[in-house]
Amino acid sequence: MHKDTLPTRVDPFRFADNNISMQGHLPLSGMTRIAQSLLSTEGLVEVDLHFGRDEEKIRYVKGHLETTLVLQCQRCMEPYNYAIIADFASGIVGSVKDADRLPKRYDPIMSEDGNLNLSEMVEDELIISLPIVPLHKQNECKVRIKQDFSSKEIKEVPKDNPFKVIELLRSQRDKK
Fold first, then answer.
1. For residues 66 and 147, is the Cβ–Cβ distance under 8 A?
2. Mind listing the pLDDT tens digit for each residue in 7-53?
3. Which residues contact residue 10 at a Cβ distance below 8 angstroms, ignoring those fewer than 6 apart?
4. Is 78 within the bounds of a domain?
5. Range of 46's domain?
6. DSSP letter (8 states) at residue 147
Protein backbone atom coordinates (compact mmCIF):
# COMPACT_ATOMS: atom_id res chain seq x y z
CA MET A 1 0.00 0.00 0.00
CA HIS A 2 1.37 3.45 -0.82
CA LYS A 3 1.68 6.29 1.70
CA ASP A 4 -1.79 7.67 1.92
CA THR A 5 -4.50 8.03 4.52
CA LEU A 6 -4.96 4.66 6.18
CA PRO A 7 -8.42 3.07 6.29
CA THR A 8 -10.46 3.62 9.43
CA ARG A 9 -11.24 -0.04 10.07
CA VAL A 10 -9.58 -3.28 9.04
CA ASP A 11 -10.11 -6.98 9.70
CA PRO A 12 -6.98 -7.70 11.78
CA PHE A 13 -7.41 -11.48 11.70
CA ARG A 14 -7.54 -11.58 7.89
CA PHE A 15 -4.69 -9.06 7.64
CA ALA A 16 -2.55 -11.17 9.99
CA ASP A 17 -3.33 -14.39 8.14
CA ASN A 18 -2.27 -12.71 4.86
CA ASN A 19 0.86 -10.95 6.19
CA ILE A 20 -0.35 -7.51 5.12
CA SER A 21 1.81 -4.42 5.58
CA MET A 22 0.63 -0.86 5.17
CA GLN A 23 2.14 2.59 5.38
CA GLY A 24 0.35 5.88 5.51
CA HIS A 25 -0.84 8.59 7.79
CA LEU A 26 -3.73 9.36 10.10
CA PRO A 27 -4.94 12.88 10.94
CA LEU A 28 -4.61 14.04 14.55
CA SER A 29 -7.90 15.89 14.13
CA GLY A 30 -9.79 12.58 14.25
CA MET A 31 -8.29 11.57 17.60
CA THR A 32 -10.64 13.03 20.20
CA ARG A 33 -9.16 11.47 23.34
CA ILE A 34 -5.64 12.82 22.84
CA ALA A 35 -7.01 16.18 21.64
CA GLN A 36 -7.65 17.09 25.30
CA SER A 37 -3.88 17.07 25.90
CA LEU A 38 -2.93 19.04 22.79
CA LEU A 39 -2.91 22.73 21.94
CA SER A 40 -3.45 21.91 18.26
CA THR A 41 -4.85 18.89 16.47
CA GLU A 42 -3.36 19.93 13.16
CA GLY A 43 -0.94 17.48 11.67
CA LEU A 44 -0.56 13.85 10.79
CA VAL A 45 0.80 10.68 12.36
CA GLU A 46 3.01 8.72 9.98
CA VAL A 47 2.28 5.03 10.51
CA ASP A 48 3.93 1.82 9.31
CA LEU A 49 2.05 -1.38 10.22
CA HIS A 50 2.77 -5.05 9.66
CA PHE A 51 0.20 -7.74 10.44
CA GLY A 52 1.29 -11.35 10.71
CA ARG A 53 1.60 -14.57 12.69
CA ASP A 54 4.62 -15.50 14.77
CA GLU A 55 6.22 -18.91 15.31
CA GLU A 56 3.58 -19.71 17.97
CA LYS A 57 0.80 -18.87 15.46
CA ILE A 58 -0.16 -15.78 17.47
CA ARG A 59 -1.66 -13.05 15.31
CA TYR A 60 0.03 -9.71 15.83
CA VAL A 61 0.34 -6.19 14.54
CA LYS A 62 3.72 -4.49 14.80
CA GLY A 63 3.95 -0.83 14.14
CA HIS A 64 6.11 2.23 13.97
CA LEU A 65 4.73 5.73 14.28
CA GLU A 66 6.13 9.23 14.07
CA THR A 67 4.55 12.59 14.72
CA THR A 68 5.09 15.93 16.39
CA LEU A 69 2.48 17.07 18.89
CA VAL A 70 1.92 20.63 20.11
CA LEU A 71 1.76 20.52 23.92
CA GLN A 72 1.58 23.24 26.56
CA CYS A 73 4.61 23.58 28.82
CA GLN A 74 3.41 23.41 32.42
CA ARG A 75 6.25 25.65 33.60
CA CYS A 76 5.81 28.65 31.26
CA MET A 77 2.39 27.76 29.77
CA GLU A 78 3.75 28.34 26.23
CA PRO A 79 3.32 25.85 23.36
CA TYR A 80 6.13 23.53 22.37
CA ASN A 81 6.64 20.74 19.87
CA TYR A 82 7.00 17.24 21.26
CA ALA A 83 8.29 14.61 18.82
CA ILE A 84 7.12 11.03 19.23
CA ILE A 85 8.82 8.12 17.53
CA ALA A 86 7.46 4.84 18.86
CA ASP A 87 7.42 1.15 18.05
CA PHE A 88 4.84 -1.27 19.35
CA ALA A 89 3.86 -4.93 19.13
CA SER A 90 0.32 -6.03 19.93
CA GLY A 91 -1.22 -9.47 19.97
CA ILE A 92 -4.60 -9.53 18.24
CA VAL A 93 -7.21 -11.23 20.42
CA GLY A 94 -10.96 -11.74 20.35
CA SER A 95 -11.60 -12.02 24.10
CA VAL A 96 -10.22 -11.19 27.53
CA LYS A 97 -9.49 -14.89 28.01
CA ASP A 98 -7.26 -14.84 24.91
CA ALA A 99 -5.58 -11.64 26.13
CA ASP A 100 -4.61 -13.34 29.40
CA ARG A 101 -2.81 -16.07 27.45
CA LEU A 102 -0.66 -13.70 25.38
CA PRO A 103 3.10 -13.76 25.98
CA LYS A 104 4.52 -10.70 27.75
CA ARG A 105 6.15 -9.46 24.52
CA TYR A 106 2.70 -8.46 23.21
CA ASP A 107 0.24 -5.91 24.48
CA PRO A 108 -3.28 -7.17 23.79
CA ILE A 109 -5.44 -5.44 21.23
CA MET A 110 -9.07 -6.49 21.31
CA SER A 111 -11.12 -7.15 18.20
CA GLU A 112 -14.34 -8.79 19.35
CA ASP A 113 -16.32 -8.03 16.20
CA GLY A 114 -13.56 -8.81 13.70
CA ASN A 115 -12.78 -5.13 13.14
CA LEU A 116 -9.94 -2.97 14.35
CA ASN A 117 -10.11 0.82 14.40
CA LEU A 118 -6.60 1.86 13.31
CA SER A 119 -7.04 5.45 14.44
CA GLU A 120 -7.97 4.36 17.98
CA MET A 121 -5.05 1.92 18.09
CA VAL A 122 -2.57 4.62 17.03
CA GLU A 123 -4.18 7.11 19.41
CA ASP A 124 -3.67 4.66 22.30
CA GLU A 125 0.04 4.44 21.43
CA LEU A 126 0.33 8.23 21.30
CA ILE A 127 -1.41 8.64 24.66
CA ILE A 128 1.00 6.28 26.41
CA SER A 129 3.92 8.14 24.78
CA LEU A 130 2.88 11.51 26.23
CA PRO A 131 5.05 12.92 29.01
CA ILE A 132 3.53 12.84 32.50
CA VAL A 133 4.19 16.57 32.88
CA PRO A 134 4.78 18.39 29.58
CA LEU A 135 7.78 20.71 29.95
CA HIS A 136 10.20 22.44 27.63
CA LYS A 137 13.79 21.45 28.12
CA GLN A 138 15.06 23.71 30.88
CA ASN A 139 17.40 25.67 28.60
CA GLU A 140 14.52 26.28 26.13
CA CYS A 141 11.89 27.40 28.64
CA LYS A 142 11.12 31.08 29.26
CA VAL A 143 10.81 30.46 33.00
CA ARG A 144 14.16 30.12 34.75
CA ILE A 145 14.37 28.27 38.01
CA LYS A 146 17.30 28.99 40.28
CA GLN A 147 18.95 25.74 41.22
CA ASP A 148 21.98 26.97 43.12
CA PHE A 149 21.68 25.31 46.50
CA SER A 150 24.86 26.55 48.09
CA SER A 151 25.41 25.97 51.80
CA LYS A 152 24.89 29.69 52.51
CA GLU A 153 21.24 29.44 51.51
CA ILE A 154 20.45 26.33 53.53
CA LYS A 155 19.58 27.31 57.07
CA GLU A 156 19.59 24.84 59.89
CA VAL A 157 16.22 24.57 61.52
CA PRO A 158 16.53 23.84 65.22
CA LYS A 159 15.02 20.49 66.03
CA ASP A 160 12.95 19.95 69.12
CA ASN A 161 14.15 17.33 71.51
CA PRO A 162 11.71 14.41 71.23
CA PHE A 163 12.31 13.60 74.90
CA LYS A 164 11.28 17.06 76.04
CA VAL A 165 7.74 15.80 76.69
CA ILE A 166 9.05 13.09 78.99
CA GLU A 167 11.15 15.65 80.83
CA LEU A 168 8.07 17.87 81.24
CA LEU A 169 5.97 14.97 82.56
CA ARG A 170 8.72 14.00 85.07
CA SER A 171 8.99 17.56 86.34
CA GLN A 172 5.20 17.73 86.87
CA ARG A 173 5.26 14.40 88.70
CA ASP A 174 8.11 15.50 90.93
CA LYS A 175 6.18 18.65 91.92
CA LYS A 176 3.33 16.58 93.36
1. no
2. 989 999 999 999 999 999 999 999 999 999 999 999 999 999 999 99
3. 115, 116, 118
4. yes
5. 4-140
6. -
What pLDDT, on a 0 to 100 scale, did the predictor assign at position 42?
Answer: 94
Measured distance CA(44)–CA(26) in Å, rounded: 6
State which amino acid sits at residue 117.
Answer: N
Let me know if residue 167 belongs to a domain: no
pTM, to two decimals: 0.76
50 close to 61: Cβ distance less than 8 angstroms: yes
**What's the structural domain count of the chain?**
1
Pairing status of strand 44-53 against strand 21-27: antiparallel
Return the DSSP state at 42.
-
- State how far the Cα of 57 lies from the Cα of 48, in Å rounded to an integer: 22
Give the mean model confidence (pLDDT) for residues 143-163: 65
CA angle 123–99–110, rounded 5-degree value: 40
Answer whether residue 146 shows pLDDT above 80.
Answer: no
Beta-bridge partner residues of 105: none
Long-range contact list for 145-151, CB < 8 A, 24+ apart?
A: 145/75
- The answer to the question of residue 176 being in a domain is no
Residue 25 lies in a domain: yes
Reduced to 3 states, what is the DSSP secondary structure of residue 9?
strand
Round to whole Å and give the CA distance between 47 and 105. Answer: 21
In 15-96, beta strands by DSSP E: 21-27, 44-53, 59-72, 79-93
